[in-house]
UniProtKB/TrEMBL annotation:
Lineage of the species this protein comes from: Eukaryota, Sar, Stramenopiles, Ochrophyta, Eustigmatophyceae
Organism field: Nannochloropsis salina CCMP1776
Keyword list, A-Z: Signal
The keyword Cell cycle belongs to this UniProt entry's keyword annotation: no
Signal peptide residues on this chain, from the entry's feature table: 1-24
UniProt GO MF annotations: oxidoreductase activity
Highest taxon listed in the record's lineage: Eukaryota
Protein name listed in UniProt: Amine oxidase domain-containing protein
PANTHER family with a match to the protein in the record: OS04G0560500 PROTEIN, PROTOPORPHYRINOGEN OXIDASE
Signal found in the keyword field: yes
A Pfam cross-reference name: NAD_binding_8
Amino acid sequence: MLTRRRRSPHFSLFTLLLTLSAFAVTAFVPRGARLPPFQTTPTLRRSKHGALFLSTQLDGNSTMVAVPEEQGKKKKKVVVVGAGWGGLSATYELAKRSDEYEVTLLEAGPSVGGLVAGWKTKGGKSIEAGVHGFWYCYRNIFHLVENELRLSPFTDWTPSAQYSPNGLEVTSP
C-alpha cells in the first residue's frame, strides 16, 4: 500500500525543474522526434516497506521512479523504468544530482521517447505515434530551451500530412 508523503517547500521547484528538464533531454532524442507538452504534477509516495516513488502521468500512462533507501550508503540507487517523457525528465533531474543518486534508465523499446518517438517508413517518410503540441502558454519550456540549451525553440515550417485507412485527410501548412 502506498501512502502520500507531505510535500516539502521545495517540491514545487522540483516539479517545475522536472517538467522543464524534458526539453534539455531532447538533445539526446533521435533527430526528428517531437516531445509533447508535459503538463502533470509528479506525486511523491512511500511504500509500506520504505521505498520512495516519484510517479508522473501523461495521457493515462504512468512512469514510476523507484528510489530505494539504503542505509549506510551515501548515494541512493535509482531505477527509472521507461524512457518516455516522464522517464527522461526524471533521469535528467536525478543525474544532475549525481552526488546523491546513482541513476539507471531502463527502456524496453528500440529507442527513447515513448509515445513521442517517431520512426521512418521504408520509403523514408516520418511517422509519429500521436498528436503533440508546443504551445506559447508553456513559458517554462521556452525559457529552458532558450536559456539552458541556448537554442531557438522555433524551426522553419515543414510540410506534414495526416493519413487514415481512407487515404490522405489533411496537409499542413
